[in-house]
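Researcher: Excuse me, tokens okay?
***
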Amino acid sequence: MPKKTIRDIDLNAKKVIMRADFNVPLDENQNITDDTRIEAALPSIKYILEKGASLILMSHLGRPKGEVKSKLSLAPIAERLSEKLGIEVIMAPDCVGEQVESLAAKLSPGQVLLLENLRFHSEETKNDPDFSDQLAKLAEVYVNDAFGTAHRAHASTAGITKKMDVCVSGFLLEKEIKFLGDAVTNPEKPLVAILGGAKVSSKIGVIKNLLNKADSIIIGGGMSYTFFKAQGREIGKSLFTEADLPVAEGILKEASEQNVELVLPIDTVITDKDVGDMFDDPSIADSAETKIIEGDIPEDWEGVDIGPKTIEKIKGILTDARTVVWNGPMGVFEFEKFAAGTNAVAEYLAQINAMTIIGGGDSVAAVNKCGLADKMTHVSTGGGASLEFLEGKVLPGVDALDD
């Protein structure tokens, strides 16, 4: 880790402001339905408090776009944190302003204040210097433990660091950088990358970066049909983005030239119903006819998952792997009928003797759905951040911290 962490500084009697990622899912009654991100922040929170500091926590929740929206208040997070820490977490009425400054000034060592949703102010995402200044004046030490937003140059991730003398990483950010960094820069070989999801364009940077490093790249999910199209195959009504076609053609050529095994599905599960309609009416998935085919997909059918032969091929490749990075599902895993490929990959990764890194987003949802998250070496808390990191990009929220 090239950046200082909370281990490297004196926290005793200090006032600390920490950027966390409490962007958790809520139901219609503002009940938290998954507190994984809150759990992930606890080691840093507890360490800071144990070292005799007072702590101000800040985060965003959802996309309020600069407006105060009561349904996106962080009040439910304050409640859950209070339960988990066994102390009252004071909920601020806002994230900046005189009232907030007064609450922060009164904090004693061991006390915690949670600021209201940062994105109730448009200045947060604009990285506004005055807004950064208002956040910075609340404390003496800045900690970033929000990997999920480290790829954004916002006031709470980048701007604030220009206003504070001590800017360090929390344990979660440190862990993310270590595992994802090692996987890309210093992996134990063979390194296998499994990439799924909808669009080639969203993963092109990752694929290109890993072409120089991976021994095998396995392509599944919606983007595999663009690669089929690039090979001149018929894909029926399967997901396809015309603009991604030259990209897929270039990747196939580059993989061949670099002697990297680029694995595409051998067989495909297809359906006669429209997947878009299924998300509007899930009962359509139950009545959909399916079949497994090899080769071209018929005109009125749509690819929804990898087939059993592809699953066996993937298992064969993974058996010898020492490092595996997985980002993106193998099919429309939201429906159990089309989740076999994604589930099989998750279950096999849980069994093999390798470093297994689940790179954010839907892959995390998949391993959680299978109850296998604790069987993986590392499950990333960052969707877009983990993707950008795997692309080899510099993350502004990490770059801004003290070396």
The radius of gyration is 23 Å. The chain has 16 helices and 15 strands. The chain has a mean pLDDT of 94.
